Amino acid sequence: MWIFHGADSSTRLWPTWTRWCVCYAAAALCVLCSPVRTHDACPASCACARDSGTVTCRDGGDSEVPGDVPDWTATLILVGRNISTLQRGAFMSNGTELDMTTLSLSYNGIRAIEPYAFLGLPRLHLLDLSHNQLESISARAFHGLPELRSLYLNDSLLPSAAAQLSNALSAQSLRNLHRLELAGNRLKSIPLVTLDSYNLHALVLVNNSIESIGWENVTNLYQLKRIRVYLSSNPFRCNCGLEAFYYWLKNSSQCADAGRLLCSEPEAKRGVPVEKLRGEDVDCMTENLEAVSYVFLGLVLALIGVVFLMVLYLNRGGIKRWLNNIREACRDHMEVYHYRYEQDSDPRLANVAV
Description:
The protein is α/β, with parallel strands linked by helices. It has helices spanning 7-33, 159-168, 215-223, 243-251, 284-314, 316-345, 347-353, and strands spanning 46-49, 54-58, 75-79, 85-86, 102-104, 112-113, 126-128, 136-137, 150-152, 179-181, 202-204, 228-230, 236-237, 263-265.
């Protein structure tokens, strides 16, 4: 508007206009020259497929989860990244939630999962933590995953983490869990307090150290007809303690690999399929009756022995005389045999006899 003023006014305003133009130009130059990071860019050392929404990061030297995951990511695969600890909100980029549905973290050497590590992933359907070396799992590790359908923890749990797993899996946010895989973790029992708290359709416990499944779990399995359990490659002890599980196995089709369940003990039944056992092999009543019969036989034999010893003690005088008579008779016989031997050995007596 200075063009409508006089010459003096225009002369005064010109330096001010120049300074403003120079400032705007410098600012624009700084913006253009500075590196710009958008939420659509692919993280460093990762491969991105925008069409499928997949981001794959392999064998990097990073020890943390990438903090610049694109907003469009549906599947994030991290392999060989040497991530020792999953910290709280590890996947919350700048405090915002992601629409990720699949997260694979296998083979990353993960040792600890802290509370609320998966915050910011409310729509996550599949979480794969297989083939790590977990030593610690917080009881709140899986909080914030209301849509989680599949959880894989195969070959990942060290003994300390296996002891904590039951508390970690009790999270209310896992109520929609459909598939739980815990193969190869040397578990000795089902690590779920109750099965009816979940919406499980598949429970994989292959290649663990389970010797038997108790009445409580068998009762839950009877009630949850929809669930399918996988139990092959476990060292089942085929004795009286397997009775409840044996009858469940015979009367239910819920164990998908029932034909591959083998006995490891006792030695006489090693390698025998569990479903091929006879009822008396696992019948607690029969086993108890056998034990009672052996005990009774032992008591009877002991009683007979005591009576025999008492009879000997009460008749010790007569037994002593009887033994003395036997000794005297034996000595008389020996003297006769000795006399005959002397006659037979003396040649003079022999000639007289001839």
